[in-house]
Design a protein that fits this description.
The chain contains 14 helices and no strands. The protein has 467 residues and is mostly helical. Its main location: membrane.
Length: 467
């Protein structure tokens, strides 16, 4: 063998080693070896990695968009238009930052499929169980909000023909069927349709300039629009948690990365998604609040009366179902991978594979149904998710992930040191929102039961106009 041939052979042998080592040592580069990913491409197993970055961005959009745009206007009524707008911009910027932190960490550390895997990497088995439990509870709550929203839509379309809980059961069955589709790629067409349906439905409502449905239908009335509100602490923290929750579902992005063709394209998908979400939330919520004032409904599609309300819910119901479907799907996918990881059944079409997958979806749907029936007020479900689970999961923990990878910045220059302490400040903010927000939501739920706004769990009242 010639000297040139020997050099070529050595270069070929050394290349993968350099790539793997540099990825692990630097902690910031994507390791392209198959061992880095949970789902393998070996030509014989079911290929899960089929999602392009545009598809991923639309999935992210649908994971976030529907529930937030339907509840932020009523939160603005509590806070006032200006503080509400500041909250929308501030929380969405922070949620985007946390989404990027989580994606970069995932793409820097091999074998991370979910946020629970990342917790195991930085804190061991006990932290994995805590974060994994938070993840499941979080997406059970937001799935419950999607099921409840769908039942409100069915109530509106049928003039409350049957008990609300029967509508919730119908919605839950539909969500189970949609969520049981196995791959994100296969449900991506649902996300396109779901996003468009909610967008069009909200646009129909904001285009209607007539009198709000809940306002007196004759004579003058007090709109109740305020640039700056004067809420109690309980009402304010609940509204703040609601707005935060509207874009905090970024931990659900992580299982999608594992099914992307090119995980390194994740950041592009996030920036596109969050740019559209932020602009839409700000414009739609300000317009709905300016039109409805204190008469805004939650979900906000109910703010329009009569035919407009039916048309809006008729178009938007598909988006509400798809949102709940995605929430159930990401939680079930976590359970599925957790049970079958390192098993031959993970990427096969075996009976065990399908049994675990369908069982995980069924469990999440049942829990979501029970939550939707127990707390049948849309805003309170989202505020509970925002404070009790999203605050530590989507705000505090990403701050710690950043600190884990950038601990040396504490002794760096002024800019690096400032960044380091700001991430600690983000963790403290998460603690405050968890404690204060959870207290606020629990107090408001107690007050709602005491005042008769909620008569009892599993009751048949129509709560579509609760705010």
């Amino acid at each position: 063998m010639s000297t040139g041939d020997m050099e070529k052979a050595e270069a070929i042998t050394a290349a993968p080693q350099r790539s793997s080592t540099s990825s692990i040592e630097a902690g910031k580069l994507e390791n392209t070896e198959e061992s880095f990913e949970v789902f393998k491409r070996d030509g014989t197993s079911v290929d899960f990695r089929t999602v392009g970055w545009i598809q991923a961005s639309v999935i992210f959009l649908k994971l976030i968009f529907a529930t937030g745009v339907l509840t932020i206007p009523s939160a603005m009524f509590v806070l006032g238009a200006f503080p509400g707008a500041v909250n929308v911009l501030g929380w969405q910027a922070l949620n985007t930052y946390c989404a990027i932190i989580q994606g970069n960490f995932r793409n820097s550390h091999a074998g991370c499929h979910s946020i629970a895997d990342m917790a195991h990497h930085v804190g061991g088995p006990w932290l994995r169980e805590v974060i994994g439990g938070l993840f499941l509870v979080t997406f059970a709550i937001v799935a419950a909000s999607g099921i409840f929203g769908s039942s409100v839509a069915l109530n509106a379309l049928s003039n409350h023909a049957i008990c609300t809980n029967y509508f919730m059961l119908v919605a839950t069955i539909a969500v189970f069927c949609l969520a049981s589709v196995r791959k994100f790629e296969k449900i991506s067409w649902l996300t396109w349709g779901g996003f468009i349906s909610v967008y069009v439905a909200v646009f129909i409502v904001v285009s209607n300039t007539h009198r709000p449905a809940a306002a007196p239908q004759t004579g003058d009335f007090d709109l109740g629009y305020h640039a700056i509100g004067h809420p109690t602490f309980v009402a304010a923290i609940t509204s703040v948690a609601t707005i935060f929750c509207s874009g905090a579902g970024t931990s659900a992005f992580l299982p999608v990365i594992s099914e992307m063709k090119r995980p390194r394209d994740y950041n592009k998908a996030v920036y596109l998604c969050m740019g559209i979400v932020t602009a839409s939330y700000l414009t739609f919520s300000l317009v709905v609040y300016a039109w409805c004032g204190q008469w805004v409904a939650s979900p906000s599609l109910g703010s329009a009366g009569g035919t407009i309300k039916k048309v809006a819910y008729g178009i938007g119901i598909f988006g509400l179902l798809v949102s709940a479907c995605l929430y159930v799907h990401v939680a079930a996918k976590y359970l599925f991978v957790r049970v079958l990881r390192n098993s031959v059944h993970l990427q096969s079409n075996s009976l065990v594979h399908w049994g675990v997958w369908l069982g995980a979806n069924l469990v999440m749907c049942v829990v979501a149904f029970l939550l939707a029936s127990g707390i049948p007020i849309f805003n309170y479900l989202l505020a509970l998710a925002g404070s009790l689970t999203f605050a530590p999961l989507a705000l505090g923990f990403p701050g710690y992930l950043w600190i884990y990878d950038h601990g040396h910045w504490r002794k760096g220059g002024a800019l690096k040191a400032t960044s380091y302490w700001l991430n600690w400040l983000m963790i403290l903010l998460a603690v405050f929102l968890t404690v204060g927000g959870t207290y606020g939501v629990i107090q408001q739920v107690i007050d709602a039961y005491a005042s008769g706004q909620i008569s009892s769990a599993f009751s048949c009242e129509d709560n579509s106009n609760s705010s």
